[in-house]
Amino acid sequence: MKQISKLSLLPIALLLPHSVSAAVVFADDFTGGRDPSWITDRYSPTTVTTVMFGGDERLQMTVDGTGSAANRPGAYSSAFYNTQGLKSPNAATTGEPWVYSVGIYFSSAMLSGTGLYNVSAWANSGGGSAFPVLGFRSHDVADPFNPSAANITTALRVWDPEAGGYVEFAPTLLLADQWNTFEIAADAGGFTFSVNGSELYADTTVPNPLVLNEVFVQTYNYGQAAPTSYLFDNVMVSTVPEPGVAALGLIGLAGLLRRRVR
Ligand SMILES: [Ca+2]
Hints:
- The protein is mainly β.
- It contains three helices and 16 strands.
- Helix content is 14%, strand content 45%.
- Strands 1, 3, 4, 7, 12, 13, 14 and 16 form an eight-stranded antiparallel β-sheet that branches. Strands 2, 5, 6, 8, 9, 10, 11 and 15 form an eight-stranded antiparallel β-sheet that branches.
- The radius of gyration is 22 Å and the shape is globular.
- Calcium ion (CA) binds next to strand 4.
């Protein structure tokens, strides 16, 4: 048998450690409460708690009239603070492709087109200048704060500033009365947004997509007096191998196998 040269093993030794599997950066399944790294983003929902739902502990965020623009302290009265949720800086990673996924529960009411709902997963990427957002909204675009508006519609949407802001899609990927997985994935080419494993949108105009600073779970306060609750679970941020690197590793392995069977 031909001696395997040390040089032929080198690419495998260099590449396999990076191509074996995803590495978890941050995960929270809300068992026993939320991870202490979560902090308020913009303005706190009225309640943020862990609840039992469907036999498992989940994060529940509830907004109501006490957190409306009219009832917030003056410094927080702008619409900016209608977005109310949590973020964790413990999800930070840089230099490798990353994936942020979170489960969001959608009741049939949320998808019925008859009320005001808004929930989303965000990341802070690109060195602070890019905020990939994958969200859902149910409101009348012409009259968004009116729960009795005539033309309430529902949409999945992705924030893409170069495309003019939110890019909206009919929410056909969402399942009623079930958990739905929202995923934002970054590689050197930009962001890919998926729901329940199906790609919704790709944003290829992103500065420094491999920089991830924080991830968010967000709700929105439309100023309604009555509470609106949202459920989240299974936050996961992981880094994944570059497909190109993994492929090179396999090519190296194939070369090694060829040599061994001679
Ligand atoms: Ca859980």
